[in-house]
Each structure stands twice: as structure tokens, then as C-alpha cells.
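Q: What structure does this chain adopt?
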Amino acid sequence: MNPIQELIINFQELAAQIPEAIRPFIVMLAGAIPFIEGEVAAIIGLVGGLNPIVAGIAAAAGNFLCVLAVVLVTSRARTAVVNHNRDRAEATRNATLVPAAPGYQGATAVEAPASAKPQSKGRQRFAKWLVRFGVPGASILGPLAIPTQFTSAILIASGTPRGWVLLWQGVAIVLWTTVSIVSVWAALTFVVGV
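A:
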């Protein structure tokens, strides 16, 4: 028995101490953690003795539920900030009316509002990538660099509609979880022999 087989069998024996009905929920919780996500959580479930399909579904569901929560919270926060800034801009516009110069018989003059703050380099770069690949590309390629929770928060903060973000984050989660679980299952079955 090689060391990998021994490690997997030891991990499966440890996982066997947990009731079988609870194992998918543990995988689901692991899938909700950023940087572990559906990909690694599915592998943990598979190595822990779960059926690959059950492990994949539980991991993807946990990851998607966490992304859903992030999208809903970020969307509400963005709406609050946008409304606050709109109200502030309107109040500023109304407050900048000043009387005309003394002796002038005419309408009031308006002060020019301060210019908007320029975008940071990071936001400009993200906007460029978003334009280049769109939400589908950013969602599918995003897990290669950052967790799906972060990607979805960035997309919502940039003004992308919630439904569009949830659709493409769901596609990305299913895609990457499937790729990882099938790859590891094939490697364990055909290469390691577990």
C-alpha cells in the first residue's frame, strides 16, 4: 500500500466516525468557506467516503448558498450607498445656488459642483476585464484567481444585476465542482486504486 492510499484510508476511517447522514452537511459547510469552495469541499467529501455525486452536489450547494448570501447583502449595501450619494448630490445641487453679485438684476448664479473622484487603477482594470469578457467570462475564469464570493461581490458592486451574477456564478460553481470531482474520482479510481 502506497502512502497516498494509506492516507486516504485513514481519512475515510476518521470520517466513518461521523454519521453518514451528516457528512453531506459537513461538505456543504466546507463549500461555503472562501478558498475551499465547491471544488475542494467535493474532494474532501469524496476522500471522506461519500458518493462522488452526493459530494459534488453538497459542495456546490454550500458554495452557491454562500454566494447567494453575499450577492443579497452586497446588493442591498450598493443600493443604500447609491441612494445616499444621489440624495447627497441632490442636496449639494440645491445648496449651491448663491445670490447673484450685488447690483446685478438677474437670476441666481450656480456654483460648479466639485468634480467626481477618479476611479482607482484596480477598478479601471476590472472594468476593462469586465468589458472584454463580460459577466460570464469573469464568473467562469474568476475562481482561477479569487473565490466566487469575492467575484460576485465585485460584480454586484460594479452595478451588474443580481440575477445575471447569480446565474453565471451558479454555472461557474457547477462547472468547476464537476471538473474537480470527476478529475479526483478518476485519479483515485484508475491511478491510486482506492
